[in-house]
Amino acid sequence: MLDVLIFSASYGGGHRQASLALAKALGSCQDKLQIEIVDFMELISPAINKVTRFTYTKSIRNTPTLYGYFYKVTDNLKLDNLMEKQLTNFGLQKILDFLVDRSPQMVVATYPMVAGIVSYIKRMGQLNAPLVTVITDNTAHCQWVHPETDLYLVASEQVRQGLLYQGVPDSKIAVTGIPIDPKFARVPPRETLLAKFGLSPDSPVILVMTGAEGMLRGIPALCQVLDEFPLPLQVLVVTGKDKGLYQLLREQAGKFSKPLKVYQFVDNVEEFMAVSNLLITKAGGLTISEALALGLPMLIYHPIPGQEMENTQYLVNAGAALPVYDLKELKVKLHLVFTQKHFYEALCFRARAAGRPEAAKLAAEILISMLAGEYAGSIPAIRANTV
Predict the structure, then answer these.
(1) Bridge-partner residues for 35, per DSSP?
(2) Which bin fits 198, alpha (ψ -120 to 50), beta or left (φ > 0)?
(3) In the structure, what pLDDT confidence band is assigned to residue 242 with cuts at 50, 70 and 90?
(4) To the nearest whole number, what is the mean pLDDT of the chain?
(5) Disulfide: which of 3, 139, 283, 384 matches 34 by Cβ 3.0-4.6 Å?
(6) Cα torsion at 235, 286, 139, 334 (round to 10°)?
């Protein structure tokens, strides 16, 4: 019998990374737990999963306004809406068969669509295990909200308020932060990392992250601006799985006057962030949570409509990041950050204040208490620290 079944998805890297972080924390808290992570769309249909992942990536890159429109439309769907019913019924039988086969004691969903499917299965009386939904962005989009969800683990007070507005009982919400790998709570000293990366302690280090699929646009031009910036900088660029961008930047780096180091997909993001003074990135829920855990301030470049805009607004409200919409504004914000010492220090302080490096551990402890029937549905100590 399976203890915890975690349903994830591979649209971007965030849902998968949150699932892995939570599973690792659960295993650290109780090493005998039987835990399984499943990509729900891959389970339903590998072919459809491939097509929808491709479509998602292309829509984010090429038609962000259209994606934002879809995001807005789906935030107003009711449970009895035809589209909502179609989303819920998609792959229903395969998910049900899988649940029957695994007999989990608890189901965790890190993607809204599968949370809806499992909620429907519970409503039909075909699953008795608790359903926990981990919301992986700073948004309370209605597609995350389903009547049979027993608990929501959320990123911030902003999300909690959004869920309360939609009628979710307070006892079903725990503000834990988005689960990130526990290694973000124990990074090596910066001096050690500077030596490891071959960087000078005398110049600021800028980290540029394009997302797992390389979805941040305009990176070559952005790097050109960094190279021409009138103050000394060192630049690290992580291109994810975008091999074309990696090759292009490698060629471009040879012509730059400033140090520019280019990397593909890396598994030590915590070290890249810990050695850096500023992060330029897209506003993915996991990426910004990791940066906040290390007190790393951010410039959010070209935030797209939808959950990224919600994440950006959260960061701006927290005082941990600045939005940047074009190259001219990038120059202005860089100058502000690196010539106004007190402003930069305030960004760092507020980023660290908003960070939750122990989010996965806290979430795991709550889930284990639920499995033991001991969770009381109230964690005021956590809310007292919310930003």
Answers:
(1) 4
(2) left
(3) confident
(4) 88
(5) 3
(6) -10
Phi-psi region of 91 (alpha: psi -120 to 50; beta: other; left: phi over 0): left
| pLDDT value of residue 383 | 36
Which class is domain 183-354? alpha beta
Give CB contacts under 8 A, 24+ apart, made by 15-19: 15/110, 15/111, 15/136, 16/110, 17/180, 17/181, 17/286, 18/110, 18/134, 18/136, 18/178, 18/179, 18/180, 18/285, 18/286, 19/108, 19/110, 19/134
CATH architecture of 4-180+358-383: 3-Layer(aba) Sandwich (3.40)
> Does residue 271 contact residue 30 with C-beta atoms inside 8 Å?
no
Q: With beta carbons less than 8 A apart as the criterion, state whether 45 and 381 touch.
A: no
pLDDT tens column, 111-150: 999 999 999 999 999 999 999 999 999 998 888 999 999 9
Q: How is the chain split into domains, by residue range?
A: 4-180+358-383, 183-354
306-339 pLDDT tens trace: 889 999 999 999 999 999 999 999 999 999 999 9
CB-CB contact of 116 with 87 (8 Å):
yes
62 secondary structure, DSSP code: H
> Which residue carries 């930069």 as its tokens?
344
**Euclidean distance between CA atoms 217 and 325, whole angstroms:** 11
Give the C-alpha separation, 175 to 343, whole Å. 28
Specify the amino acid at residue 290: E
Question: Residue 214 corresponds to which tokens in the numbers above?
Answer: 């390389």
